[in-house]
């Protein structure tokens, strides 16, 4: 597609439910990032993929968070047993660069509200 | 660890007036520096970036930024703002040491334009 596409745009979950957020990056982009943006804050790094390999998951806040990119294209961020503190906008970004932080192209985000 | 400070949470500017948004970074080597803009409900759009070379960088929408190593700053400027510039602005720093690392973002500056 022309840009990074994320779905759903909005998700409301009851505490304890599992959620899955999808990211479709720009075609051909090797690098894919997930960020978490809490209300009134800047985006915070969660995890990074180079093709299908998850090279950095140091930003994932707990073992309830899991991300995958099995075919090196679409990625899914899964949150198990959601908690209220998981409420945030989850941003996906892709880049053609694999050496140094090239320009990141961001999707519009998935806003998760946990009740 | 790298970090970014945006000292101003909110800035109000009259339409047509000049603008300067401050950004200070902490990083051990030569950083890669970015400014992104985020309109409500939208993803982040890259305004400009600095990797090396000329310390005055031109971006889109009439924005520019100047890298000052001695002050660890990368302030964003625009000579005359338009009402459409009202948005959230984020400064970010990346690792120049190689490898597609994620960016570290500041908390953002909310720009309000007065008529």
Features of the shown structure:
heterodimer; A: 115 residues; mainly beta; 7-stranded mixed sheet; 11 strands; 0% helix; 48% strand; globular; B: 115 residues; 6-stranded mixed sheet; 4-stranded antiparallel sheet; 50% strand
Structural write-up:
The complex is a heterodimer of chains A (115) and B (115). Helices cover 0% and strands 48% of the residues of chain A. The mean pLDDT of chain A is 93. By secondary structure, chain A is mainly β. Chain A has no helices and eleven strands. Chain A has strands spanning 5-7, 10-13, 19-24, 31-37, 44-50, 53-56, 65-68, 75-79, 88-95, 105-106, 110-114. Chain A is globular. Chain B is an all-beta fold. Helices cover 0% and strands 50% of the residues of chain B. Chain B is built from no helices and twelve strands. In chain B, strands 2, 5, 6, 10, 11 and 12 form a six-stranded mixed sheet that branches. Chain B has a four-stranded antiparallel sheet with strand order 3-9-8-7, with no helix packed on it. Chain B has a two-stranded antiparallel ribbon with strand order 1-4. The mean pLDDT of chain B is 90. The chains are: A mainly beta (115), B mainly beta (115). At the A-B interface, strand 4, strand 5, strand 9 and strand 10 of A face strand 5, strand 6, strand 10 and strand 11 of B.
């Amino acid at each position: 597609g022309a840009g990074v596409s994320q779905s759903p745009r909005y998700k409301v979950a009851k505490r304890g439910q599992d959620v899955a957020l999808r990211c479709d990056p720009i075609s051909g982009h090797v690098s894919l990032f997930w960020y978490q943006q809490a209300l009134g804050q800047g985006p915070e790094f969660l995890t990074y993929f180079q093709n299908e390999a998850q090279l950095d998951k140091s930003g994932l806040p707990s073992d309830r968070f899991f991300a995958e990119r099995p075919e090196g294209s679409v990625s899914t961020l899964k949150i198990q047993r959601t908690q209220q503190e998981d409420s945030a906008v989850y941003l996906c970004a892709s880049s053609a660069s694999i050496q140094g932080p090239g320009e990141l192209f961001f999707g519009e985000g998935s806003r998760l509200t946990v009740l | 660890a790298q970090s970014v400070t945006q000292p101003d949470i909110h800035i109000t500017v009259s339409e047509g007036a000049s603008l300067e948004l401050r950004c200070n970074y902490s990083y051990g080597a030569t950083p890669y520096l970015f400014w992104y803009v985020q309109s409500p409900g939208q993803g982040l759009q890259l305004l400009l970036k600095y990797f090396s070379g000329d310390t005055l960088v031109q971006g889109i929408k009439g924005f520019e930024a100047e890298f000052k190593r001695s002050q660890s700053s990368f302030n964003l400027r625009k000579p005359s703002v338009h009402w459409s510039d009202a948005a959230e602005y984020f400064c970010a720093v990346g690792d120049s040491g190689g490898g597609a690392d994620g960016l570290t973002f500041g908390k953002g500056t909310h720009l309000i334009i007065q008529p």
